[in-house]
């Protein structure tokens, strides 16, 4: 039986993989995780997709247990500031797009918008976020959404099987290092062998398959399937097996980041329950509120900005609270491995690929890779079909997300610096130009977005197109011949619901203070 899994690397990717496979296969799988005591983890990675809740459910973990341990908060949207012009903001919320007579509400909004804010008119969440509210009441009940928690027909589905069925109203923000620690306890309690040591050599057999890894103090570790979770180093897949890496730098030039972890009194400050991405002269700054601190960082292209200037800008942006905080400068490898599974080696996490964290996709990539590996887990026959299906799925998810991110820059109206002007003339992925031409006339739908599963529904594309403001969009001509009454009633219903929620939901801080 093929059941010896060796995971090299103990960051978020390594521990998520170890925990998931123990939860999936129990004692029938033998898992060893070796992580260096000398090489650190990336140390950021704090905002997620809402889909991550399936991961926690699969492990049997409850919010009330893991969230306080990871200083976690709720994320109801990404808030984009200054991408259209300075002073403008809009949300990409976790909220299903309403549809009226077969047309998305955003189409009706284009036809006859009640205000110039598509997000506040078409969704409830933006006003909930502006008011700093929690999506759960103090007794734990969920915001009034068309969503049934724990519905039987949803159990055991992968993320791709869930897509389009429901939209859960929030994701999470947490300290990734604390989550890795929490999962270490989870995995070790369930029988994962944990070794702290440096892998110094990857041993290949005559076919070029990995027979084992040699550590500094624990000798050789042998296994059947090796999971490379060594981060940007990609020691097994890219270094030992020499699998080529496809850079995305021609379409996504941001290759650097500087991060700060700024202690804050969240009670005094309050929690804006979202991740904010504020456009800058040569990139953007993330702001992620956690319990007890703000995680923040400037993502930029070093062709346009030096690390010193980036750090200075970030410190000015944060203000005096950052004065004594040490900055963490990070070089990002943007792109993906040609194949993430080769022979008996599967790369998961940064070793497989990465795109800038503008839509918080890093942990989503890990979760997706784990689900796909579980689905395509090999036996002694090592069928190439499993590898092929896995590799295609990983490539599609990463290429699809790349396309979505490129759209942010192409659609942003801002053009006040060379960085933003170049964003309009840089090469874009094949197919995107044609799709944008189509979306100018007909808003994105399942038929016209990137044709493979990549985690993002068509309404996400609508939000970016409508919010960024640099591409002129037209409503469907059919709406001019249609009765506007039902759409007007829907806009009014959203206004009513927003008012009702503002009166009943607790402040986000108060909700978490009660949990802690
Ligand atoms: C600037 C930035 C911001 C990000 N923000 C987000 C976000 O908001 N949301 C999100 O979802 N994702 C985000 N990510 C991505 C996220 O950080 C990663 O996906 C996640 O942390 C997984 O990292 P990893 O485990 O693959 O690698 P790492 O954290 O780098 O871990 C690598 C592991 O390999 C081990 N290792 C390396 N060499 C050896 C060796 N020789 N022997 C033994 N062990 C070894 C190390 O000790 C470490 O344990 C961000 C990434 C960056 C760079
Ligand atoms: N898989 C979906 C992806 C998704 C839907 N809405 C949003 C909003 C934001 Cl900010 C990020 C991702 C998504 C999910 O996670 O719910």
UniProtKB/TrEMBL annotation:
GO molecular function: oxidoreductase activity
Oxidoreductase as UniProt keyword: yes
Keyword Oxidoreductase annotated: yes
Keywords: Oxidoreductase
Record EC number: 1.14.19.-
Family note: Belongs to the flavin-dependent halogenase family. Bacterial tryptophan halogenase subfamily.
Matching PANTHER family: FAD-BINDING PROTEIN (PTHR43747), FLAVIN-DEPENDENT TRYPTOPHAN HALOGENASE (PTHR43747:SF4)
Protein name, per record: Tryptophan halogenase family protein
Record organism: Streptomyces cellulosae
